Amino acid sequence: MSNIDSDLQKEQLSTLESFFWSVACDCLVQTFNKGEYRKIILPMLVIRRFDAVLEPTKAKVLAENEKLKSRGEKHPQNFLKKASKQTFYNTSKFSLKDLRARTSPQQLKSDFTDYINGFSENVQEIIQYFGFAKEIDKLVNSGRLHLLIEKFTSPQINLAPFPILNSDGSVRLPALDNHSMGTLFEKLLRRFNEENNVTEAGEHFTPRDIVALMADLAVIPIADKLKDSSYLIYDGACGTGGILTLAEKRINEIAKERNKEIKTYIYGQELNEETFAIAKSDLLIKGESSDDLKLGSTISQDRYASETFDFCISNPPFGTPWKSDFELWGLIEKGTEKVNYSALKKEIKDRRFVMNYAGDPEYRVIPDVGDPQMLFLANNIAKMKRDTELGTRIVEVHNGSSLFTGDAGQGESNLRRYMFENDLVEAIVAMPEKMFYNTGIGTFLWILSNKKEKRRRDKVQLIDATEMKSPLRKNLGEKNCEFTPEIRKKILKVYMDFKNSETSKIFDNSEFGYFQICVERPLRLKVSLTEENIKAFQSETGNDELVKILNDFAKKKSEYLDFNEFDKRFVKFAKDAGYKLKGKDKTAIKKFLCQVCDTAEIVRDKNGDPEPNSDLRDNEQVPLTYEGGIDGFMRNEVLPYAPDAYVNDSQTKIGYELSFTKYFYKPIQLRELSEIQADIKMIEKETDGLLSEILG
Asked: Does the pLDDT at position 120 exceed 50?
């Protein structure tokens, strides 16, 4: 798309957004709360779009329907679809424009209901997802339905995917393509929600320029290997279907440029019924089957559990709790309060998120319940093809938390470890801030492949594209910049060149891994059988019998620098006195009669191993690339300062994380001393005599 076309499209969308916002404010005020506007405007948008698409073939469909009725056709659907030249139709004798002439509210209600019921089942299903039917009575009784129909059929707007022409053939109103329809939907949804202090607007929506870049990164690197075959495109968080439809278009363009005859099929799943309805409606208008869009939570209701795909391109929600999925899994009942989700995560058995890896049959890649984005990435990985030449390519949008959240052994780190150790990550692209409509935070594109080209094997490329942006003349929500076609080519070139540069860094997979080790220091205790300590022991335990034995024992020796020697002697002394020491007795002795002492001997357990001093315990991260590994780290970094330190091997874990700042940090160039001196002298000159003037 050229910059001129892009500007025209933005102007068109801005005009439509303002128009329908004014329709809502004019037609629904005092009848509906602002929070309810979306329940009316959004389904009317879809209905009018279907209506506009069917207008050219309306008469032919009605004639065909009468003919089918006269011959008693029991299955007229395919005939009617053929007549409408769409995958849907409407057999009502009315169109929305016809209903503008109704003056009687009850007649309008009857005819409008007849019009809605005249749609084919696939359209009626979409309307049902909006829950629009229950609003019709209120619209009719308040006289607002007639106003809405007049506004939505205004000759000043066009919701059809084809242009409205002047008599001379010139374009009077441009077409509204499917992605633009999705954009309009999201813009209105965001505006309605912002007016009602709701923040989820645009949660699943991705701007066109980012989708184009995602499609380029998914396909162009392997474009020369495409064959005259079919390719499956999947989005597990498809929203209004914008990524799927635009990615499909871009993939077909790339294939055509290389003279490849390919067929593409799109598959998606969406949780929100409103956005799902928009996605299905757009597919119907494109003439494609909408049966391959599924409703439900991808996390807990995977509708494609046994499917694999060639391309997985997604912008999953991030920072959105996924607690409701525990209900859908049947792990808790709806409305349950005070749930321990950390414990409950251990009950999840889904093999997308609980795998057999690294010697652990229950290796979990399940993140915190406050952020589901890495579950969507794990879902896509589970749907990779492994028996084809190209395998599967994944391009997915994430925020920065996917790079570093989670300690070693936790779900987020475990997924990173799985991806890097299985050589799945090709590249990660850092994008500019304020690229999305609903958030200004920095975002990243993860690019994965399970069939890397030879030069990329065991390597990861980090691309810093944070400064590659073009400012918008007018903000779109939070979005104030975009990727122009030229910028997309620049980013793609950096990716394809696969060289170290100012904006590209290439590393071995192991660069991002580390051992998380637990460094212990042995416990050293001095035993002090003083009168004061024994009294404190008696006050706490109330064990007078043991206190008497302690006093008798202290008469021989009241201080020990070797706890094990004391323990051995005192156990025998107490036994000879007819008392068998219990575990709680030894605990109380350590608490009230002992104190940590650097010069004391190491306390050892019954196996002769040192007991750790929990107060001196420390956790360290040792890079996998550290020369000499853990032993080398201890020898160089720890033992020179704590010679008795040791590693608790049972607590050692492997983790992975990365930081763009670490690799792309650009230190600020300090000013020369001569410049600073010159500035000081200039200030002194400018203020010369000022103090005398102030003091008179």
From this structure: yes
pLDDT value at residue 671: 76
Please report the DSSP string for 320-351 in residue order.
---THHHHHTTSS-TT--S--HHHHGGG---T
Bridge partner list, 265: 232
- Tokens found for residue 686: 């400018």
Alpha carbons 638 and 579: distance in angstroms, whole number: 44
Identify the three-state secondary structure at position 397. strand
**CA–CA distance, 613 with 438 (Å, rounded to integer):** 50
Please name the residues in contact with 390: beta carbons below 8 A apart, sequence gap of 6 or more. 222, 225, 226, 310, 451
**Cα of 661 vs its chain's centroid, Å:** 21
| Rounded Cα gap, residues 467 and 478, in angstroms | 17
pLDDT at 138 exceeding the cut of 80: yes
Please, which pLDDT band fits residue 674 given cuts at 50, 70 and 90? confident
Q: How many residues does the chain have?
A: 696
- Determine the average pLDDT of the residues in 312-334: 92
Q: Note the pTM of the prediction, 2 decimals.
A: 0.84
> What mean pLDDT is reported for the chain?
90
Query: φ and ψ at 599, to 5 degrees?
Result: -90, -5
Q: CB 123: neighbour CB atoms within 10 A?
A: 24
The residue-averaged pLDDT of 612-641 equals 96
Helix (H) or strand (E) holding 42: helix 37-54
How many CB atoms sit inside 10 A of residue 436's CB? 22
> pLDDT band for position 201 (50/70/90)?
very low
**How far does the chain reach from its first CA to its final CA, in angstroms?**
70
What does 277-329 look like in DSSP terms, one character per residue? HHHHHHHHHHT--STTEEES-TTTS-TTTT--BSEEEE----S---THHHHHT
Closest CA to 81 of 268, 280, 288: 288
Instruction: Give residue 419's identity as a one-letter amino acid code.
Output: M
β-bridge mates for residue 559, sequence order? 528
Q: Three-state DSSP class for 631?
A: helix
For strands 293-295 and 263-270, give the pairing: parallel
Helix (H) and strand (E) counts for the chain? 26, 22
* 268, β-bridge pairs: 235, 293
Contacts of 345 (CB under 8 A, 6+ apart): 364, 366, 369, 411
Contact 273, 295 (CB under 8 A): yes
Strands 425-430 and 459-464: parallel
Instruction: Give the separation between CA 328 and CA 145, rounded to whole angstroms.
Output: 38
**Four-CA torsion 482, 485, 487, 492, nearest 10 degrees:** 120
Print burial letters for 590-608: b (CB count within 10 Å at least 16), e (below 16): bebbbeeeeebbbbbeeee
* Closest-CA residue to 314 (of 399, 380, 375): 380
Distances (CA, A) of 387 to 229, 309, 390, 392, 423: 15, 11, 9, 10, 17
β-pairing, 594-596 with 618-623? unpaired
Distance CA 55, CA 153 (A): 12
Q: What is the CA radius of gyration of the chain?
A: 35
| Tokens 């019009």, residue located | 115
CA distance 414 to 420: 10
3-class secondary structure, 526:
strand
Q: Which helix (H) or strand (E) holds 578?
A: none
> What is the pLDDT at residue 386?
94
Where does 131-205 have alpha helices with state H?
Answer: 136-141, 144-152, 178-195
- CA 309: distance to chain centroid? 20
Rounded to whole angstroms, the Cα distance separating 314 from 211 reads 9
Structure tokens at 187: 């813009």
Q: CA–CA separation, 217 vs 490, rounded Å?
A: 12
